[in-house]
Structures are given as structure tokens and as C-alpha cells.
Design goal:
Length: about 325
């Protein structure tokens, strides 16, 4: 959107629309969706990406606790493997986008092990993928989620879709115990699945490494490509609490606005996601979605697929960085 704006295809927000966004949308979300050109559009539907799905029953039976810190999560992952379980569910098969779930987790790891300034510079391309610190973040992804990374497991991950990856968690003998996936995973759960601390499955936010827990988001942003009054009126409406209330009433929607009460959500899970966003000190938009397109939606995906297949960190870094030469 920033590139299209630079080329004149996406118009700068009209003053009255920008005022609506600044009045109603969470400041942290505004910061996460503002580029060097300013606000390109109206954020109006969000997904929380920094979620870990798990079975409360299995955790209770095995004596596991939801980790409070990033280091606690690493320890828990190792403990699960030591107990003979596969700690993480994972699947990255998605046709031309194969690899994207792994990029999401690497982005979350960067947010937890490095500063937000480092994350922003990496997303902008100022810090290259070939930087040793980025390599260490990819290695952390491997050590935390892949464990020993035996070849059979690597092949399984590459051939399993994100929608299917969590299925082994529901087996009588669970094939994996945690799944890092966005709030939209709710739509992929088996029919009738109860979400909550006493339900079939629940979620916790991937814990932070510092005082604040950063939250990675994705979402929909509406922008203007025609300078027509009805276009601006629609965008102003989408920025308003009134619009969000209509969408929230339908379910499966998490608003970007900060001046909405939880009572607008009839779905308890949506209300929880809203609270996570409101309470987050740091929010960043999905990194690959913001990167130079040949990198963010191509070479970074390929790089993580290469890494899952081979465990070769330097090769993965080189594959990702090569996208900048296209």
C-alpha cells in the first residue's frame, strides 16, 4: 500500500477520515499500520497472531503450566519433548505461500528477543536477512519448535497445511501439544469445539522476554483509490464505532477501535482478542506483509521452507535476502 501510494494509486486519507481514525482506532494499531507515508488506510478488522493454542485438559493431566515468560516457554518445550511428546504442532504447506506459518513465528521471536527498533529495521530491509542476529532468530525458531528436527518430521511439516496442523492435538494420544497460530484458527477447529480455560482448547499469548509482551497482528485495511465523496464517507464509517458494532454482531470479527465496550461482542473469544489488543503495550503488523513484496511474499516463505527441510541457517538467510535483488 505504501508503494502504491508513492505511485499515486492509493490516495492519502482525507482529513476528516484521518481524524476519525485518530479518534477511534487504538493508538498501538495506528502505530503498527502507519508507514513512512503516514496512514494509508483505515484498519477495521484485525487478527491476533501471537497466540498459542493448547488443550487445558492435557496440560492439567501432565502437570504443565501456561508459561509466564519466553524462557519459561523454551523450558516447557524441552520438558514436553523429554516426556516423549512432540511439543509443537506445525504445518507450512500452502501452495505458492508455503512457508508462511514459519515466517510468522520467526517474526514473533524477533519481537521477543530483539528490540522493536530492530524488528522495524529488519522489516524495512535496513537490517538484512544475512545479519548474524537474524540467523540466530531462525536458529531459535528451530530449537524451540523443531527440536531434534528428524527428517520424517521435517517432511511432515512441509506436507501439512496450517489448517490441518493442529488436528493431532485432538487425538486420543495427542501427536502435539501446542500450536502457534492466529485467532483465525478458530474457523479451522472441529465443529462444536469449546474454547476456554475449561474447554476443549484454549489460547495464551506468546509470552514476552521483557516487561511488555508484544503482539503481532494481521488484518484488513481499507484504502481509497478514487477521490469520490462516497469513498471517503465509507472509509469514515468503517473507522467509526458504529461500523465495528455491526461487524462484531456478526461474529468472527475483532475491531481496531479502542472506544468499544466488550458487550458488543456476542462471541466470548472475539471479546478476549479485543482485550488482548487493548492491553498490549506494543503491537506490530505482520512483518512479511510489510516487507518488499518479492521478499515478504516469496523469498522469505521459500527460505523458511528450505530451513524446515534442511536445517541450514545460512542457506535460508541467503535465499530470503536474494528476494531484494528481484
Amino acid at each position: 500500500m505504501n508503494d502504491l501510494g508513492q505511485e499515486g494509486f492509493v490516495l492519502p486519507l482525507r482529513t476528516d477520515v484521518r481524524d476519525e481514525v485518530e479518534e477511534h482506532v487504538l493508538e498501538t494499531v495506528q502505530a503498527a499500520t502507519t508507514s513512512s507515508r503516514g496512514l494509508n488506510g483505515v484498519p477495521f478488522q484485525l487478527s491476533v497472531k501471537s497466540l498459542v493454542w493448547y488443550s487445558p485438559r492435557i496440560f492439567d493431566e501432565l502437570g504443565y503450566k501456561v508459561p509466564a515468560t519466553w524462557e519459561d516457554l523454551k523450558v516447557l518445550s524441552d520438558r514436553m519433548r523429554g516426556d516423549g511428546f512432540e511439543a509443537w504442532c506445525m504445518g507450512i504447506s500452502a501452495f505458492d505461500a508455503t512457508g508462511w506459518p514459519a515466517t510468522d513465528l520467526v517474526e514473533d521471536i524477533v519481537l521477543r528477543e530483539q528490540s522493536t527498533e530492530f524488528y522495524d529495521a529488519w522489516v524495512e530491509g535496513t537490517i538484512p536477512f544475512t545479519d548474524p542476529v537474524v540467523g540466530s532468530m531462525i536458529d531459535t525458531f528451530g530449537s524451540v519448535t523443531l527440536g531434534s528436527g528428524v527428517s520424517d518430521r521435517r517432511r511432515s511439516i512441509i506436507n501439512t497445511t496450517p489448517a490441518q496442523a493442529m488436528n493431532p492435538m485432538f487425538a486420543e494420544e495427542p501427536g502435539c501439544l501446542m500450536y502457534k497460530q492466529a485467532s483465525f484458527q478458530k474457523a479451522n477447529l472441529p465443529s462444536g469445539t469449546d474454547i476456554g480455560p475449561d474447554g476443549d482448547v484454549d489460547v495464551f499469548v506468546l509470552p514476552g522476554n521483557y516487561s511488555e509482551t508484544p503482539v503481532l497482528i494481521g488484518g484488513d485495511i481499507a484504502a481509497a483509490m478514487t477521490n469520490r465523496n462516497e469513498t471517503w464517507e465509507l472509509l469514515a464509517y468503517l473507522a467509526s464505532p458504529e461500523s465495528a458494532a455491526v461487524w462484531a454482531d456478526l461474529g468472527g470479527f475483532v475491531a481496531a477501535q479502542d472506544d468499544l465496550g466488550d458487550e458488543i461482542y456476542h462471541d466470548e473469544f472475539d471479546a478476549r482478542m479485543s482485550e488482548i489488543l487493548k492491553n498490549a503495550d506494543v503491537i506490530r503488523f505482520d512483518g512479511s506483509d510489510q516487507m518488499y513484496a518479492p521478499v515478504g511474499t516469496d523469498s522469505f516463505f521459500d527460505a523458511m521452507t528450505v530451513y524446515v527441510a534442511s536445517g541450514r541457517t545460512q542457506l535460508a538467510q541467503d535465499v530470503a535476502q536474494a528476494g531484494y535483488d528481484r
